[in-house]
Amino acid sequence: MKRTTKRTLEKKERIRKGALLITAAxxxxxxxxxxxxxxxxxxxxxxxxxxxxxxxxxxxxxxAGTTASEGADEGSKAxxxxxxxGGTLSYxxxxxxxxxxxxxxxxxxxxxxxxxxxxxxxxxxxxPAVGQLQEQFNLLLSNRTLxxxxxxxxxxxxxxxxxxxxxxxxxxxxxxxxxxxxxLKAYLEANPDVDKMIKTDDGTxxxxxxxxxxxxxxxxxxxxxxxxxxxxxxxxxxxxxDEWYDVLTAFKTEKNASAPFTYWYSSQGxxxxxxxxxxxxxxxxxxxxxxxxxxxxxxxxxxREYLQTMHKxxxxxxxxxxxxxxxxxxxxxxxxxxxxGASFGWCGSSLGTWTSAGRATEEDFTLVSAPYPTVEKGDKxxxxxxxxxxxxxxxxxxxTSCENVELAARLLDYAYxxxxxxxxxxxxxxxxxxMENGEPVYTDLILxxxxxxxxxxxxxYIRANYNGPFVQDEAYADQYYVLDExxxxxxxxxxxxxxxxxxxxxxxxxxxxxxxAQIMNEINTYRDEMTLKFILxxxxxxxxxxxxxxxREMNLDRxxxxxxxxxxxxxxx
Length: 573
Fold this sequence. Notes:
This protein is 45% helix and 10% strand. It is built from 25 helices and 13 strands.
């Protein structure tokens, strides 16, 4: 009991100190001066126009938010970048694999250098070792002193964002946004649906979010197959499960494909968005049904039909026998060397990258997209991969260890300004992009780099091709997807009714989150083990009812109760 009491007191003290830091920072800054230049007219690159400064009004149509919100305090309206006196902040985040291919730190990338130049703030980026994000995140939290800023998927924090606040890790941001973040505040005021997504049920803001800034950015994965093989065999792009069976059979018998269909199945891969499970209306995880209630697809009859189909295809050699252990690199190799003829992957790093690699050895190599399949011909796909506007990745928080809350807020708010928006999405004007007819256009350094792929070239200058605390711009995608096949794929894959089935970023209470995590850890482990056994034939479908009953006995109904209660609270925000 003594240990529990002591830990509880320590957490409360950290929260109290965090709140005092905010109050002290606001009082010391007097709000009016902030960290900007002494006269409010620094000669550097201002992000607030003269008209905005005088009126406090902004153009809500700007995709990145604007530089001041109507009704913002005088200090926010008078602030400008770069910061006059500067300062140093520590910033912990995972180094994206695309950037890690050429840089050991964002400090070395042109993006990181320009961010510091434009803001006048020195940033000490800290990155966990590749493949050790979760382990090093847990180790980070065990230390009493945290970095000033941590970027993470905070909805996955044990107990959720509210628990992170109660644990004394994350500072609540309501006062911070009001005082120091005119750009983010303006964006949220202009986008109430997003505003609803980035706070807890009691209205507490906790992060600087990553936002998909347009519909075409919300869908990025789908089915693809060898278009040149289809032409050679006189076949059409499959739209139903029966047509997929016929096409994969032809790939095996006529093209001698040893793995007609292959994809990155692992838990780090694309498991949650399985297109063939979607065909039967049963995602392996939670979804919103037609009754506007949360359901768990992996215990429904549709999931059994999906597994029966996969078992049949596996037994007939239509699915890669190495499915359970494949890495993404192995999938890439099989697609490009002709061992496989179809897959499920990303529009950029799969369809685009594989096409380039395949054409290096086979001139006619072509990948075409296929819609999310249905059972009945002519039906519109009910499910498909689609993100919410707010994506639970790349979300930055200010920690309770931060001694200069204003400086951290100013750094993060910069990304939602007009200038910051351009940096995060397009990089450095004159180097990575130029303005043509009022639109940003990537230069050959990005699009035709002789030494780097587009993905790797972009990652040195921008963050739009992965994530981070900013608003992603559709104009990035228009240029990133250079192939006609990629542009067509986005239209094909997004033509679903997925919107009505996506669960918004709900936040169960601390107690609910803990209870749900304990239950779902057990359920997910069992579901995933049995899923593979059913597909591989190690379990008979005569055992299906036992499988479902076992999951229900693990207290699935309680989790559904928690999820639906959280959904009701979210809808009432």
